[in-house]
Amino acid sequence: MAPPIPLLAVRGSDGTTLLCGPPTCEQHSAFHRDSRLSRCLTFSRDGTLFGWCNGNNVSVVKSSDGFVMSTFDLPKTSLLDFSPLGSILVTWQPYSKGPDCPQGDANLQLWDLESGKLIKALYQKKVDAWCPSWSEDEQVCARSVNNELHFYENNDFNAIANKLHMQKVSDFVLSPGGQPSKVAVYVPGSKGAPSFVRLYQYPVLGGPTAALANKSFFKADRVTMQWNRKASAVLVTASTEVDKTGASYYGEQTLHYLAVNGETALVQLAKNGPIYDVAWSPNSAEFCVVYGFMPAKATVFNLKCDPVFDFGTGPRNAAYYSPQGNILVLAGFGNLRGQMEVWDVKKYKQVSKPQAPDATHFSWCPDGEHVVTATCSPRLRVSNGYKIWHYTGSVLHKWDAAAGSELWEVRWQPFPDGSFPEQAVRYQAAPSQLGTTQAPPTQAYRPPALRHLPASASTKLHEEEPPQNMRGGASGERSLSKSALKNQKKREAKKAAKQDARPEPEPPSDPAPLINSHSEPSSGDPETDKKIKNIKKKLKAIEELKEQQAAGKVLQKNQMEKVLKEDQLLTELQELQVTQ
């Protein structure tokens, strides 16, 4: 049986439309484009239903044949969502009150899709965490009300089945999957007390002793919590608005790990700077972190929070795993140039390096073969449009908004897990009439005063780090990646060529034999001999640091200062030996 063809929903100033997805993108024959301005759109979790609001009403249709399931007279609806099994439609409109209704109208509605009747109307003034959270079997539903969590069972919203009483609960995330449901809750610190995140298993919610795991930390104005797919662990990114040390414009971030078995850890990152993105692998056993001052590092960690593979440094601030988890895209969007690095996760081998400048949106197609990038308004009001790519870098379809028109949103139709089996990773670009877009090779910035001089490592503004396999071998040492080994061999060959080219009659001009020599003639002056010995000792230490740097290790500031003094020490050594 052939796999289904995903749909792509497109919303803009020209209306709402559905396209039959890659490799070709044509208008869905069963869905007629709605030319009215759409406020929002969404698919159900399994992709069988599609809903949107066009400013007059909210419509829900079947994705396959366009059959109209329900229509609701809700012209002001700004947000839509379905319950996991598609039985309930949730609508939200901005909260407002007037002289006729000082209390305001209940602006969050839950609708039964089969009958079209209103199940419950609730008040939800804030747009943050506006939608209730369900377990995938819809047996448990939770929402935050006045700093406490209310739980409902079996979609009965007339009775609160359970509550989590905890002072100032400001955020929560319900675990994916079915029963038993788990919930991660965040309580910000106050009056010198630390912030903390706790994990509970429903319905046991009473007090800290009932918690599956507890992690407290300072320096947190807000947090982002992410469950893995198996609901066995949570990653918590804690952020402060201001970095009091003044080192970062982005504030300060830390990454914490909590498992349902009670294990917690602070994820140790190898480079200072902000944490741009954190992404769980669909296998729930690894996660990728993009972090550090530009050029940023990207590292994959296992569930022990040990590094597995380091992708080195580059212009990136986002990470996206394919739905099957076999491909990882590292990208630099926003204020970066839109460079994407596509990696085969199993082999840790780079597949392609396409570039999507000015992209404001990226998402994987459920088939794990294609992606869409888009430039949307209001983030960018010029050059609006989208491209559909094969992960090998080929552009398969391109659409640009006409002059005076805007693109607001693109969204793939979701599918249940297992709908698209994992395919073998291809390295040859897929055929395309639009060709491929590969990122041009980047060159390190050089100050104007140094541009007329030959390039050397000492003139680089940033030290580039190659990818590195962090898995320990039998000896426990970290092995180098192929590119790192290749670069190391080049350096060694270049060094050997320089040494062979030096004239033999002038031993002082070649410091290498002097450094490695064990028996040196005495100058007759004990003080001079002592100075020569000390300089050779420093030079030997510098050689060791340079070898470590070539192997991919990040040197500390004081170590870099030592390396920069090499030429000065060689000059002093030659002067001392000439006077012998």
Concise structural overview:
The chain is mostly beta strands. Helix content is 12%, strand content 34%. Mean pLDDT is 82; it is low at 473-480 and 503-519.
Can you characterise this structure?
- There is one protein chain.
- With 580 residues, the chain is mostly beta strands.
- Among the domains are: 132-252; 267-465, Lipocalin (Beta Barrel), CATH 2.40.128; 502-580.
- The chain is built from 5 helices and 38 strands.
- The protein has a 6-stranded antiparallel beta sheet. Strands 3-2-1-36 form a 4-stranded antiparallel beta sheet, with no helix packed on it. A 4-stranded antiparallel beta sheet has the order 4-5-6-7, with no helix packed on it.
- β24 and β25 form a beta hairpin.
- α3 packs antiparallel against α5.
- The radius of gyration is 30 Å and the shape is globular.
- The protein starts with 6 loop residues before the first strand and ends with a helix.
- The model is unreliable at 473-480 and 503-519 (pLDDT under 50).
This entry's quaternary arrangement is: single chain
Low-confidence stretches: 473-480, 503-519
Strand order of the largest sheet: 24-25-26-27-37-38
CATH third-tier fold name of the domain at 267-465: Lipocalin
Write the layout of secondary structure elements.
Layout: E1 7-12, E2 15-20, E3 26-27, E4 40-43, E5 49-53, E6 58-62, E7 68-72, E8 79-82, E9 88-92, E10 108-112, E11 118-122, E12 133-134, E13 140-145, E14 148-153, E15 162-164, E16 171-174, E17 182-187, E18 195-201, E19 213-217, E20 222-227, E21 233-240, E22 252-259, E23 264-266, E24 275-280, E25 286-291, E26 296-302, E27 307-314, E28 318-321, E29 327-331, E30 340-344, E31 349-352, E32 361-364, E33 370-375, E34 385-390, E35 395-400, E36 407-412, E37 468-472, E38 478-480, H1 482-501, H2 511-516, H3 526-550, H4 557-564, H5 566-578
